[in-house]
Amino acid sequence: MAFNMLLKDNLTIRNKKKLTGAGLVLAVVLFSGNIVMAQEKAKPEDTEVWKPVPQKVSPATGNHAPSDAVVLFDGNSLEKWESANGGKAEWTVKDNILTVTPGTGDIRTKQNFTNFQLHVEWRSPAEIRGEGQGRGNSGIFLQGRYEVQVLDSYNNRTYSNGQAGSIYKQAVPLVNPVLPPGEWQTYDIIYTAPRFKEDGSTESKALVTVLLNGVLVQHNFEIQGPTVYIGTPEYEAHGPGPIQLQDHGDLVSFRNIWIREI
User: Fold this and answer.
1) Taking the model in full, what pTM does it have?
2) CA-based diameter of the chain, in Å?
3) Tens of pLDDT along 218-249?
4) End-to-end distance of the chain based on CA atoms, in angstroms?
């Protein structure tokens, strides 16, 4: 009721041909008074939302995932993974750590995902071999298409959109918070999948936010299309997809991998 009165008085003032002097002052006072009256009649509970009630979730602690997460690798087996070429995943599992077996190819989750929060811990070899892209190289492919780069980028210069924290060949990380080789690094990735129209054209591009070792390195970046090594990325319509880890020939290790579907 108070809001309707305020709106009516405001329209009345606007419809006057001209207000000057004392008339203008009076109009301003009356309008201000209506705002005060409306605020005085408002109650705190008018803006309180009680439903729905957020689900109770236990947070991540140490090596334990949040209670509503899907644990993709718990240190024991690769039962939730397969070779990207089909068949059994051939990477090595030892001492609760998953390590690339060079030459066996990429591995991917058997389950497909759309929008999610992904947590991955990774480690490049302590023994430094090679330089640039040839040093501790791997990658995390979101929906099997869009790569968040894994690389030993500690005192190791390469093209900026190819270092750790980059969306490979698309987005340079905001900063470089990479730890020395042999130490565990942590990715926390928030991903929104692209949407496509019925004719296959792109309605909205994928969005990604990435924290590397707790530091923001990608902020709501609009992915330009699937990762390509040469050329310009172009979207093709697709549905849910897996999380894929890259075999780039280096002994990169992973642990504590979990995902929360959004």
Assistant:
1) 0.85
2) 87
3) 999 999 999 999 999 999 999 999 999 999 99
4) 40
